[in-house]
Give the backbone structure.
Amino acid sequence: MTRRSGRFPLCLAVFVIAYTVLGAGAAMVRDDAMTGSTEDTALFDHLLWSTLHGRFAPNLTFGVCQFGVRCSFFVLVLLPFYWLAQDPDTLFVLQSLAIGLCAVPSFLLARRWLAHEGAAFLVAVAVVAHPAVLSQNVNQVHEAQFALPVLVWAALLFERERFGPFLVACAVACLGKENLAAAVFMFGPVAAIQRRKWRWILAPSVLATTILGGFTLFVAPALNPGGERAWHHFLPDGQAHGQGLAALATQADEFVRRALQPGRLAYLGKCILSAGAVLPLLGPLSLLALPELLVNMTVASGSFTVLHYHFSLTVGVFLVLGAAQGIGRLCTWFGGRNLALCRLGLSGLLAALAVAGNLFWLDLRPFRKPARHSTQLAALALVPEDPNLSVLAPHGMLSKLSRRHQLYYLDRRSLHGKDLTAIHVIILDLNGVVAGANRHVAGLMRDGPGARSHRAVFEKDGMLVFFRRDIPLSAATS
């Protein structure tokens, strides 16, 4: 029997608040520094702002409805909160809060397994401190983070064997993003390992398959005909578009080759080491990490195996929760009279490994404002406030300009079929992300077609601003 007190729930509440404040604060600092890409933050800021201003859920990159690209309907839950404060900072706070709230069901799960509130608190810390999870506070804004606490709550309901509420939570989690639906599918195999009734084995897997299959086969093609599909990530370079699922059947040897690449094996090692090494192998709930882990190890792009990118969210959470299950088993087998000390010690080790794992990715340089930051701000200040004027901006400035109807950046998908001379304001950063593309466009604006349609209104430290000639200089905000 767990001895319960009011101390650790209070500590947990304080921890979640502090986690939210620090996580959101760090995200704001990094965003304000404008040292890296902000297109994903801009995407969701633009999506919510546009929905509130008459255009339903546009995807900034592809120019179609977001739900023709990703199964991320849960993001609409954010609309009432975003309506109160229409700014990317609102999303940073909500994102860090959502990640931090995962500690609550994690605590309740661990308390159930370990019968020790102190050990359960340490497990909750480990879940949200795992490098694949903690890093998502500052890795721009992504949709899966907001539905993640629902998925972890579904795991709690699964352990408590509350079938109806469990299925509801699973259905909601499936609408967070495809990777969450894949994790929901794995409740079926976990139930089979635990020898539960057939409804526990079949229902979550059938539910996830129905939602994800319905989205992939019907919703996405209807909203985005001919667009990119999830399976395109698995195909070799040169087959990324227009290939169907049948093409995957011939790629088995390619999947194995990719998974055995040194960089991918190193990624796997970092994920597991930060979750207690062998401990996740002892807990069946760690199976929920398997779909995302397999995807990351076998997709064509190596960017999926970057620990601090958003592709490893469920990997971090469920490897740690599986490790907590493993601790419960180990201590039952070997704890003897020192059962409480065993649970507390191993949970502390798990939390320490999770925190230490952040050394694999943490780099403070993106949080520091560059020497030319004042020049970037000066260029931004020239952009007219009128949301009806279209803007092409550098990657680092997109989140500052996303509350307008037409925003573009230097990416073949964002600019597909777009005439540069039709864009009202063009900002280029010759020293920023994709500097080569910025220099190419600068040449077009100075000596090519852009020289006739636009005029330069600002040039300093590699920052250039061009106004279309029908935009008066008086339209600038300063």
Observations:
- The chain has two domains: 7-365, 373-475.
- Residues 7-33 form the longest helix (27 residues).
- The chain has a mean pLDDT of 91.
- Residues 4 and 117 are 7 Å apart (CA to CA).
